[in-house]
Amino acid sequence: xxxxxxxxxxxxxxxxxxxxxxxxxxxxxxxxxxxxxxxxxxxxxxxxxxxxxxxxxxxxxxxxxxxxxxxxxxxxxxxxxxxxxxxxxxxxxxxxxxxxxxxxxxxxxxxxxxxxxxxxxxxxxxxxxxxxxxxxxxxxxxxxxxxxxxxxxxxxxxxxxxxxxxxxxxxxxxxxxxxxxxxxxxxxxxxxxxxxxxxxxxxxxxxxxxxxxxxxxxxxxxxxxxxxxxxxxxxxxxxxxxxxxxxxxxxxxxxxxxxxxxxxxxxxxxxxxxxxxxxxxxxxxxxxxxxxxxxxxxxxxxxxxxxxxxxxxxxxxxxxxxxxxxxxxxxxxxxxxxxxxxxxxxxxxxxxxxxxxxxxxxxxx
Length: 365
Prior knowledge:
It is built from 14 helices and 13 strands. By secondary structure, the protein is α+β, with helices and mostly antiparallel strands. The N and C termini lie far apart (78 Å).
């Protein structure tokens, strides 16, 4: 059972808004089975821009019931229901605050029709209620009034229910008060990650990379991230939708890819410290750094020529290690060559870091 609602407020400071109008339609998935619509006396002034937007003014609300007078009815009609709203986080927050002022803890599982629409109705120019309904041919009466917007949300939600043929998308989109869906999502993400060396990319709902990580065991490193309680880690785990990764097989390539990708992608939640570029040259102008690959028979190579890092590649044919012209066809080029040189130089001069083999060669003139 769903309680589809819309709330109009006074506007004002965050968490200090008062409700001026509320509309709730109890919906069983097929039809409306109950409803509650009422103006509310917020006992505070309405912001002028809100009056212009909604048409609700202070005079209209003088004789309207105060929130405590309708609170019991709201509890009754929403009992055993999932709250559905267009931008549910706003309506649910305002409603919870009003109940909190009465000393009542109001907790509900919620479902946002904006989030759901983005998953089931793709590539819309706007997901605002008015524009989305217009593009879908859904009639909206009394826009920016609680009843009109709530009725439009009912019609939109009916369409979304039809589009979610196996009902899995809606189920995964519900925000439970016990956070169960998010916990299941995090576990599912972990289950798909390898226990291998490499770098990983945290994507948000839009697919954008918001964090880049690395480690000898990708799954273990991501699990550590999800268990952290820092503000940054909590934001990352809250916003994560998917994690992709690249296996590297060895610490040098992990470090190289990590810093090069950080410089290129600049993910929102990484703390990027500027690295001082090396002013020293390599001891040799032309050489290969050969290291472990991703599989037992594979090797990772980094090619340096004329004191410049050209790129890296994986190869599992031993003779290719001595065929430079073949390797040049295999390598993935590196754009930020100065940063790459700094990362490799710092790795090689560290007493605790090693590579399997350094192969020096001469460039044909």
